[in-house]
Design brief:
Distance between the termini: 74 Å
Order of helices and strands: HHHHHHHHHHHHHHHHHHH
Mean pLDDT: 80
Low-confidence stretches: 374-380, 382-426
Number of helices: 19
Oligomer: single chain
Structural class: mainly alpha
Largest sheet: none
């Protein structure tokens, strides 16, 4: 209103643009359209062609967010044509990007691919590596939605390679997420797990706690779907293995109740199969969960059942490992005499086996017990907040999903919206 009083029409137009942007982000699309039309009318009056093109883009984005894709495409096309006349190739490429996105949302995958390929070609000419990587990612998304998984994987990998060259670890992590998601949709669960492990490793390197939680959630989904498939095929041995890893995943995520449920399923299946070594491992797994949860009495009970089974099977290395676990658990519980007794049993067995590195480890364990650190009832990690992707679909929160508007009034810059454990394993 003040700008109107001062007859500063360019600034009035800017404010209409910002109001339209605000209403769109608020999902108040009718008001957003009214404001954007005001912006457009003023730009046309001022014969400000670059910002007329931008106003058409804004209208396209409002209709797109509203789910009115035909209208959105029409306005993006008008914006693209004006930018073409102005020889603004970066903006032309951006409009091809948005048109492709509209077609993808409509399920018109051939048109989406054609438009996104136009965007990619222009960005390659501009030698803009980050935008080329973004277009390759978007092509991967279109192919994945189209169920063309091989093509999707190829484009995700190319995008990932470019982001790696740019040393954008957060975005690389998101590409591993997308790859894992695509392999899972394709039913290639081993590949999906490999990609999800890469995602987890990167998020741990970056100390991204919410991202780590998301990676564990992703691993859990893959294990569950793979398990369900093997159940249909009545492959109990494989299903048991998947319950094992699902339990491990929940335990690492500090979701102890779910970890126990999965480990109990594992134990039941191994008992059904009369797999004595598998039963022993399941009791060991249960002991580890209870120990991490700070429920030491239950942990000791399960460790002892595991140890007793290994003794019947005469597996002395495994028996030694269980003495290690028992010693570790008693020490965490603050019961140092029992911890020493278990560690002495560990040392005796390792000496009998002439396991020099194991003997050294046993002496280290004895030293740690005599050191008497604080007894603890704390679990070994804090419960992270879940970041389940929205709608159960791939949501890469670091990867820029789209190029944002480019406007001279915004500085002429295009922006993107953008214990350690020494426990031996069995």
């Amino acid at each position: 209103e003040l700008y109107q009083q001062l007859e500063k029409e360019n600034d009035v137009a800017n404010q209409w643009c910002w109001m339209a942007d605000c209403y769109r982000n608020w999902s108040k699309y009718e008001q957003a359209l009214d404001a954007a039309q005001q912006d457009l009318a003023l730009r046309q009056k001022l014969d400000d062609r670059p910002n007329i093109a931008d106003a058409y883009y804004q209208l396209g984005r409002i209709y797109q967010d509203w789910g009115k894709y035909e209208e959105a495409i029409a306005h993006h096309q008008q914006s693209r044509e004006l930018y073409q006349q102005l020889d603004k190739q970066k903006d032309v490429a951006n409009q091809w990007y948005w048109i492709a996105d509209c077609y993808k949302e409509q399920g018109k995958y051939e048109q989406a691919i054609e438009c996104q390929q136009q965007c990619l070609n222009l960005r390659q000419q501009e030698e803009d590596s980050s935008r080329v990587a973004l277009s390759l990612y978007q092509l991967g998304r279109i192919y994945q939605d189209w169920d063309k998984y091989e093509e999707a994987i190829a484009h995700y990998k190319k995008s990932c390679e470019l982001w790696q060259k740019l040393e954008e670890d957060k975005v690389v992590g998101d590409l591993w997420y997308a790859l894992s998601d695509c392999y899972r949709d394709w039913g290639k669960y081993e590949r999906a797990l490999e990609a999800a492990q890469q995602l987890l490793s990167l998020r741990q390197k970056l100390q991204d706690q919410s991202g780590i939680a998301e990676a564990y959630w992703k691993l859990g989904r893959i294990y569950q779907q793979s398990r369900d498939l093997w159940q249909k095929l009545e492959r109990d041995e494989v299903v048991g293995n998947l319950w094992y890893w699902l339990s491990d995943c929940y335990r690492n995520w500090c979701k102890y109740e779910q970890a126990l449920e999965a480990a109990q399923q594992l134990l039941s299946l191994r008992q059904k199969l009369q797999d004595q070594s598998g039963i022993a491992k399941a009791y060991w797994k249960l002991g580890g969960i209870y120990q991490d949860w700070g429920k030491y009495e239950q942990a000791i009970d399960n460790y002892q059942q595991s140890r007793d089974l290994w003794q019947k099977l005469k597996e002395e290395k495994k028996i030694a490992n269980l003495w290690y676990a028992l010693s570790d658990c008693y020490r965490d519980w603050g019961k140092y005499e029992q911890a020493l007794e278990a560690a002495q049993q560990l040392l005796s067995l390792r000496q009998k086996l002439q396991d020099q590195s194991g003997i050294a480890e046993a002496y280290w364990k004895l030293g740690r017990i005599y050191q008497k650190p604080y007894p603890t009832t704390q679990t070994h990690c804090q419960q992270p907040t879940s970041t389940r992707p929205r709608n159960g679909r791939s949501y890469c929160h670091n990867l820029p999903s789209h190029p944002s508007r480019k406007t001279p009034r915004r500085g002429n810059k295009t922006q993107y919206r953008s214990r350690i454990s020494r426990k031996p394993r069995l």
